[in-house]
Amino acid sequence: MRNALKEALLPTAAIAAALLLFGLFVWFAGVSPLQVWLLLFKGAFGDWYSWQNTLQRAAPLMLTALCVAIPARAGLVVIGGEGALVLGGLACAALAQSLPLPANIAGTALICLAGAIAGALWISLAGWLRQYRGINETISSLLLAYVAIGLFKHLVEGPLRDPASLNKPSTYTLAEGLQISGIGGSDVHWGLVLGVLACIAASVWLRWTPSGFSVRVVGGNLRAAQLVGLPATKLILLACVLGGACAGLAGAVEVAAVHTSANASLIAGYGYAGILVAFIARQQPLAVIPVAILFGGFGAAGSLLQRRLGLPDASVLLLQGIAFVLILASEALRDLDWKALWMKLAKNADPRSSSSVIAGLTRNPAAVAADLDPGSSPG
Amino acid sequence: MTSDQALIFASGIVGGALRVGAPFLFVSLGECLTEKSGRINLGLEGVLVLSAMASFGASYLSGSPWIGALAGCAAGALLASLHGVLCSLPRVNDVATGIALMLLGMGLAFYLGKPLIQPQAPQLPAIALGNWSDSAAVRSALQVNALVPIGLVIAGVMAWAFANTRAGLLVRMAGDSANATRALGYSVSGIRIAATAAGGMIAGLGGASLTLFYPGSWNEGVSSGQGLIAVALVIFARWSPLRCVVAALRFGGAGAIGPALQSIGIGWGYHLFNIVPYVLTLLILVITCRPGGVIAGSPGELSAR
């Protein structure tokens, strides 16, 4: 517990700094920062209505973050979650309109499964290209995301289009029985439960099962994994399949619970936001849950800032950008030895001992040696 | 298809390649310079949008599109150097930082650029290359953005500098082997920050050509992911500035197939043609990559990961 608190300290400080900086921005725009901070909190976590809004946005973020975090534990940087998400949504809508599904929970489970399979196939394609063709998975998953979005638009505006959707091309609306309802009549849908469960399951799998452990070994040290005979390629593909399934499920849930048909509103950037959520959670599935809720809250507060204070609707995008940059930069301070730094500062302030070392001109031979050591090179 | 339609179709594609390809040209050259130094800047999307806003704003306020283009360069260099500095810190991942800077750049641009959505700014002059033809379609297709020749010159200078100058060799060395660079007593971070900032400056011209030539206005949908795609373009060009020109024109042209078909009355497959460049890049990767091997021309530090 104490460790977890310590881990959370730096990101929290970074978010506080981001809020301060953002306050400075709105101050220049002639709006009181205090009012903005209050409204941000109100819009995100102030009352039950804002909580509903926040949690509704957090659900897909959790799942798309897992699409980055699980492959990351196997040593892959996958940034194409957006593609898996839109294809998941498409598969869900396509299955619902092509087959006479039972309009009950079994039917809903089937369309969610279809979404998960579509996402899993798409991301495992990136993993396959990496393992069998040697193509960098970061690049290929990004390209595949654009291909997926193109396919999505083509099918939604062409073969799968509901002729009744005039202004906004959409697929047929899901039958009432297939839609995912809100929990207890609220706007928070069961997708949130799916997201939380997926995060917990991923965490348990990585932490407590042999296959999860093997995936971590492959990601931590590929050579060691190969030496002890782990099937690295299979494990990497497994991580891609699981991650992709999560993102695909996110798309299916968005369609079944929020949009009720597949259309362009599905392409809302949840895939890209998920990348940041995963990196801020340091690829820990359990940490994904609070981070996703926090950024869902930022999103939810956006419209309130615009309505009440007349700030541009991009204000929240700006706040998110500042927060993300600062949180990522704060990682650099994680290994800093505060005690040593303090001692050094105290020593430099003491005029008697500072004469021998001139900062920046005299270099410590040990540091030079460490710089040249190939093992310690970054990258 | 009659010959008239064929002419309209062909000029639609060529015109599209020149118009849509111009921002592609600048972002790919910028990304090429950054990647040559051993770093990937996914934040070029943010750089592009921010510089588009900055050049539109500066052009509107000063009345001169050229001052606008310079402002775009400056804004691009600033945001990109932030990427360069952040990535030089220990434990900071360049992919995640790129995405974060994409959000920051877009947020800054939309926040500060809100009052600029209504007005019209002075536009960059066009170079008319189509006066030999009587066809209006050909003439309008060959109206070339005045920044394009500058981009071609930058591509040539970059290709020459990478092979022949001390600075170019330093950038390539930092990209190929950080250890060799350190052993020779140069600062890897310093070189990479400089290369990233210069890359952002070049990409800033891409932003200027978006708001000051085509589409020629500032709004929140001004870029459709051109900055992210720069990464694909550079692979397509196999890290050669001269091939970046070809890649940018080809991506612009492929993106123009859909609209060109629409202009002669064929609406089918609009979005399918839009994804042609991405599929093409993937196919090229499949053909040229080998497991365990690296693509010819790729910086060693990038493929080592």
In words, what does this structure look like?
The complex is a heterodimer of chains A (379) and B (305). In chain A, α3 packs parallel to α7, α7 crosses α8 and α7 (190-208) runs antiparallel to α12. Chain A is globular. Chain A has 379 residues and is mainly α. The model of chain A is unreliable at 353-363 and 374-379 (pLDDT under 50). The relative contact order of chain A is 0.18. Chain A contains 15 helices and no strands. Chain A has two domains: 2-333, ABC transporter involved in vitamin B12 uptake, BtuC (Orthogonal Bundle); 339-376, no CATH class. Helix content of chain A is 72%, strand content 0%. Chain B has helices spanning 3-36, 44-62, 65-88, 94-112, 136-141, 147-164, 166-176, 178-183, 188-212, 226-236, 241-263, 270-274, 276-288, 300-303, and strands at 126-128, 143-145. Chain B is 71% helix and 2% strand. The mean pLDDT of chain B is 88. The longest helix of chain B has 34 residues, at 3-36. With 305 residues, chain B is mainly alpha-helical. Chain B has a domain at 25-118 and 148-236. Chains A and B meet through α5, α6, α11 and α13 of A and α4, α8, α10, α12 and α13 of B.
* CATH fold call of the largest domain in chain A: ABC transporter involved in vitamin B12 uptake, BtuC
Report the span from N to C terminus of chain B: 50 Å
In total, the number of strands of chain A is 0
Distance between the terminal alpha carbons of chain A, to the nearest Å?
32 Å
Number of distinct helices of chain A: 15
Low-confidence stretches of chain A: 353-363, 374-379
Shape of chain B: globular
Oligomer: heterodimer
Q: Number of helical runs of chain B? A: 14
Low-confidence stretches of chain B: none
Total separate domains of chain A: 2
